[in-house]
Design brief:
alpha/beta, single chain, 5-stranded parallel β-sheet, FAD/NAD(P)-binding domain, Enolase-like, domain 1, 22 strands
Length: about 475
């Protein structure tokens, strides 16, 4: 068996792993990058980029259909499913190509292909061919979509989001299990491209939202367009003809069976840590089997093992994976002189329409950390000027700030241009701005950002009238 000795071993060549590899190399350490699958990040292959390609096609179709609201009447809209998916796959392959080209530029001696498994805190077994001995490690093994075994047994028409982007054509119908980010983005995109879509949600959750008021508006906005069955679970899936018989059960216990071409499981992702032999590392692990780690340094306990990206299940997003990887790689290189790295203000965006964004501290988190100590301001986009001009006047923005200091803490919203407003507000949180300082900033007219100003003015009013005892968080449990 071949033996390789290195200073840093990075397991996984996704966003976190590649960033960690480069950071460790920049730190002057001999670094080995180990990958068991094909090169190309989750984002490029099956995540943020191909999903936005599909969403962009859906937006184009929707704009044609919505044009009549402006008095503009287009001809018959024809959606060429084969052409839509051909562009999705072609552009997806282009993005993946950039990643593969980058990895191809790494020295051959720095790359090793195969599944890694810890034999001890200092040794990895790579398949049956190589033993790697290293001083420090970065676990960046990513995550895998969850498809329940009982659904998977129904055959190849039960899929995860990974399979969508390999379709040659759009299907006739899709059942989507899950009202999270992936389920809503893909479900709405497919619907707008002419696919019959039903989305099943076990509870009342919508993407990453936790504020009850925003959730209520979000559910209403989605139901205006989509067949979303909240508080309804998929209880059985069976092959039926050229598709599947999907049986669902609502909150009253009533069951319904419908035929769909596919069932898309969008119920979450599972960190890829369970086949790594972590039991041989001596690391303390949580009830999900994930090593307990420091979120500022990515260090697992006081060991020379660091964990980054989706593998640690903190914030499964590309920008976070890159930050995790950089921190983990730098600390692996300098170990034992471990230092906190830059952790940015949380920012999450769902590219549905209306768009959904959360930034900074969300409502449910503040109900724990600032119970009775934070104020809420809000604005509805129903009558917001620019939103009405664009016929995108749906949604609600809720903003939060700390009593006494006036420090802006975060926001949750569904509404127009949320991807842009989310950045604006996340920057304000990270800069430590007060609400008064934010209101001193320039606002042009007419722009959607004027809605932010309205919400901040409402927030400022509530800050000036702090309650003697109770704050806005009447029920400090997470929203359903």
């Amino acid at each position: 068996m071949k033996i390789i000795r290195t200073e840093v071993a990075v397991i996984g060549a996704g966003t976190a792993g590649m960033t960690g590899y480069r950071a460790a190399k920049a730190g002057g350490k001999r670094t080995l990058l180990i990958e068991s699958n094909v090169y190309g990040t989750t984002c490029a292959r099956v995540g943020c980029m191909p999903s936005k390609l599909l969403i962009s096609a859906a937006d184009a179709a929707h704009m044609l259909q919505a044009a009549s609201g402006f008095g503009v009447h287009a001809g018959e809209v024809r959606i060429d499913g084969k052409a839509v998916m051909a562009r999705v796959r072609s552009e997806r392959d282009r993005f993946v190509g950039f990643v593969v080209e980058s990895v191809d530029g790494y020295p051959a001696e720095d790359k090793l292909h195969g599944h890694a498994r810890f034999l001890s805190p200092t040794q990895l077994q790579i398949d049956a061919h190589t033993l790697v001995e290293a001083e420090r490690f970065v676990i960046a093994t990513g995550s895998t979509p969850i498809v329940p075994d009982e659904w998977r047994a129904a055959g190849e028409r039960v899929i995860s989001s990974d399979a969508v982007f390999d379709w040659d054509d759009l299907p006739a119908s899709v059942a989507v299990a899950g009202t999270g980010v992936i389920g809503l983005e893909l479900g709405q995109a497919l619907h707008r491209l002419g696919v019959r879509v039903t989305i099943f949600g076990r509870g009342g959750s919508v993407a990453q939202l936790s504020d009850p008021a925003v959730l209520d508006v979000a559910r209403g906005a989605l139901l205006e367009e989509l067949d979303v069955r909240f508080k309804t679970k998929v209880v059985n899936v069976a092959p039926q003809g050229d598709g599947l018989a999907v049986t669902s059960e609502d909150a009253n216990g009533d069951q319904h069976t419908e035929h769909f071409s596919y069932l898309l499981s969008a119920v979450g992702r599972r960190p890829n840590v369970h086949q790594l032999g972590l039991e041989n590392t001596g690391l303390k692990r949580d009830h999900h089997g994930i090593p307990v780690y420091d979120k500022q340094t990515m260090q697992c306990g006081d060991s020379a093992i660091f964990i980054a990206g989706d593998a640690n299940d903190e914030r499964p997003q590309l920008p976070e994976a890159a930050d995790h990887g950089r921190i983990a790689g730098e600390n692996a290189a300098r170990y034992p002189d471990v230092k906190p790295g830059l952790r940015r203000t949380p920012l999450a965006i769902t590219f549905s329409e209306p768009q959904i964004a959360t930034m900074g501290s969300g409502y449910s988190a503040l109900c724990v950390t600032h119970a009775g100590r934070f104020a809420v301001g809000q604005v509805s986009f129903h009558n917001q000027g620019r939103s009405r001009v664009m016929l995108q006047n749906k949604g609600l923005l809720r903003v939060y700030a700390e009593y006494h200091t006036g420090r802006f803490l975060g926001a949750e919203m569904i509404g127009p241009r949320a991807e842009n407003l989310g950045h604006l507000l996340a920057w304000a949180v990270q800069a430590g701005l007060t609400v008064a300082a934010m209101l001193d900033m320039p606002f042009y007219h007419p722009v959607v950002e004027e809605g932010v100003r309205t919400a901040l003015r409402d927030l400022a009013h509530h800050l000036e009238n702090a309650p003697a005892h109770d704050g806005p968080c009447v029920d400090c449990t997470p929203a359903p």
